[in-house]
Structures are given as C-alpha cells and as structure tokens.
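User: structure tokens for this one?
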Amino acid sequence: MLTTESLRDYALNVLGVDKLGVANIERFDSAPDDMNPRFIMPKARSVIVYLKRIVRGTCRGVDEGTNWSSYHIFSYAGLGQMLGLAKDRLLRHIEQHGYDATPLSAVASSREFGPKAPPAAPGLPPREVVIQHRIAGTLAGLGEIGWSKVFLTKEFGPRQRLGVILTDAELEPDPIVTGELCDRCMRCVAECPAGAIDPDRSVGIEVEGHRIEWNDLDLGKCKLTHFGLNKLSGPFFAKRFPGVSFPVADQEVTWLEAWDMGWAMFPTMPALSALSASPVASCGARGCIIACMKHLETTGVLETKFRTAPGFSDGEPWRLDEKPGHLESDHKGFVWDPDKPEVEKPEPSDGKGWY
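Assistant:
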C-alpha cells in the first residue's frame, strides 16, 4: 500500500533525498490556470515535493572569492541531475503501486518567456503550465518561502533544491508550516549584488489560513547576475571585459533579454562556456542564499549545526570593483594587455602626444 509515510521512508532511506512532503490538490485551487497542476494532470490528487540539500562547503569559494565552479557543478547543475535520478526512481515506485505519476521539470522558468501560443483547446491556459516549485514546497509542508523568494527549511535554511511529482494517488497531506524562519532581516536585500530584491514591494497568496509572501523580485537583474554578467559578484565577465562598465542594478531588462544576453556572452568567456551545458549559477547566490544562511545560522534557528564554524562567516561579502579595470589613458583605445611588459615610448615631438 502506498502512503505518505511509506513514500517518505523510501525516498529518505533508499534514494537518499533529504526531505519529502505531500500537498493535496485542493491546496492549488486558487492558482492561476498557467500555474495549476490540474492543467498538467487533470486527475492529480496529490503533489509530492522532495529536496536535496546544497552542501554548505560548496559556498565557501564564492563567499571567499576563490572558487566558483564547485557551487555550480555540485550544488546547481549537479544537484539538478541528482534530483532527476531520484525522481525517476520515485516515479517507478509510485507506478509499481498502481498509480500514475507525472514528473515536472526542474527548470521551471518557461513562464518567464510570456505567452507563446493560443490555447491548445477551449478552457486551457494560453501558454506552458509551470508549477512554482517553492510554492509547492510550502504547500507540501517542507518549509517556507523567504523574503528573497528562496525556499527555506528548518534543517538547512536556504540550502536546498526541489523536485516535484504529480500523482493520482490520494495521499495524506503534510501540514503547512509558515512564519518560523524568515524574520524579514533584509540581509538578502542588502547583499544582493544585483539590487534585484525589493525591500518593500511583495507578492503573496493565502492557502488554508497561511499568508505566503515574498519580495517582488526584479527577474531581469537577477538573471543578468545569475548568468555571470555582474562584475560585483563574479570574476569571469570582469576578467574578459575589464574596461566595460556594466552596473547591473541600473539596468531595466526583462528576464528574457537577460537570458538571451547571457547565452550570447557565454562563448566569449572560457570558464562560463565550459559550464554552459546547463544554465550557469555563476552568481553563487551570494545575497539570496549565502547572506540568508549566515543570518539564520547566527540566530541559531536551524537544526543542522556545524562544529568548526557554526555561523559560516561573519565577514563582509567579497566583491570585485564594478568600475572599469583600465582607463583610456592606458591604451588610447587600442589593444590593452596587462600581461605584456611596458614598451618604452618615444618622446613626442610636438608635446601633444602621439594620438
């Protein structure tokens, strides 16, 4: 017999996921059509959400300004692959008990592209249906959405990624729990290198008496930074284009413009090009995850404790300078190569310079 507890036991003890919860389909009754699981699986009765933790040590190099690849390889793209492997086995396990199960993609951003086509049939939404994984995680009782829009759990704070499955099995839902973790300290706002997290404006929903609320995130600024184009938070763009001033906080781009610009720029930067088989988290989540983690660990509200560094870091976040790395006077608009030795310049004959 398939129950919530038997499924949780299988996921945690056989598959090695860190947490699993279940929401009944009625909790999604007020969702807009393009975010309603019934438009993906009309006979769905339960929404299963599970997670795997982000290993804390993969955030070290980002926080200290020494290494970016471990976060992306192990805690972003790599963790997404591990969630997919667990999802495949969960789907088969559910099916072996005689129920249908529908997997949802870990890349839940197609909604940001906007309307693409008319409805496939009368009564259907006019674009791809995408379930917001963090809302699903909250409704499945795994944790809550913080102000930054990042999902928080009492075990790991902001350190996890989620997977979602729909099924026609009617499983016992887990209770919703909110208001336990995010204390609106706004450290995420202060330390987001993109200035993408709004301190005042919010988006919210209410389900079963719970108010679920997060900031009205600037998706364009967030995506530019996520794709490595913010000099404050990542070294790749700054190294490749040291003379370019590109203050991301001043940009007014859409999510799609930022997406297209990121993919266009990847081939020009060897490190990002090598990582771009999947969307690149080259920002290192320095405001939304690392700053939040520092605060929650310091306040002592998280269940997972660490022996040698219980508060991760009390230091200021490491940042590059957003200003150009060289001046026009260094190169006169010609090639600038800081690695080449200085060439002795002849004295100008007219006192006005060579150019």
